[in-house]
Amino acid sequence: MKTERLMGLDFGSKTVGVALSDPTGLIASPLEIIEREREDKLRKTYARIEELIAEYDVSKIILGLPLNMDSSEGDRVRKTGEFKEALERRTGLEVIFWDERLTTVEAHEIMSEANVKGYDRKKYVDKIAAAIILQNYMDNNKNS
């Protein structure tokens, strides 16, 4: 069984949701949300991701690709692409885009089922979305 630890990221304008796989690459779990004051302030975000990569011995990053519902690319795709390039440069790891459409909707559905309400939802949604992105990637690549 493989022992590759993967990191899933849900990159947003003010937060980055972070998830990790178990060492077997079968289960994705929400880890944390990295917050920043402004969209263009990413230095501390990169530093925190680098700390997590070292702490958990991450070998690959799966980054949510925010396509529009019609598969077109908007401004968020461009910004996410810039984030991907910087991550690859800084970490030396492979960063793989993975379609993130409807992951936030799915995260809200999970929280509804768990009876998470109000402000608490904001605390969890991005890291749950990151876990969904990562789990979808792992499920799709089980046999490779």
Topology:
Layout: E1 5-11, E2 15-21, E3 28-35, H1 43-56, E4 58-65, H2 75-91, E5 94-99, H3 103-113, H4 119-140
Task: Summarize the structure in short.
The chain is α/β, with parallel strands linked by helices and 144 residues long.
Describe this structure in words.
The structure is a single chain. The chain is an alpha/beta fold and 144 residues long. The chain has a single domain (5-140), classed as Nucleotidyltransferase, domain 5 (2-Layer Sandwich). The chain contains 4 helices and 5 strands, in the order βββαβαβαα. The chain has helices at 43-56, 75-91, 103-113, 119-140; strands spanning 5-11, 15-21, 28-35, 58-65, 94-99. The model has no long low-confidence stretch (mean pLDDT 86).
Key phrases:
single chain; 144 residues; Nucleotidyltransferase, domain 5; five-stranded mixed β-sheet; 5 strands; globular
For CATH, the homologous superfamily is named as YqgF/RNase H-like domain
Number of helices: 4
Count of all domains:
1
Overall geometric form: globular
CATH C-level: Alpha Beta
Secondary-structure element sequence? EEEHEHEHH
Query: Any low-confidence stretches, pLDDT <50, length ≥5?
Result: none
- Mean pLDDT level: 86
CATH fold-type name: Nucleotidyltransferase, domain 5
Strand content: 25-35%
Helical proportion, percent range: 40-55%
Structural class: alpha/beta
Strand order of the largest sheet: 3-2-1-4-5
Largest sheet entry: 5 strands, mixed
Question: How many E strands?
Answer: 5
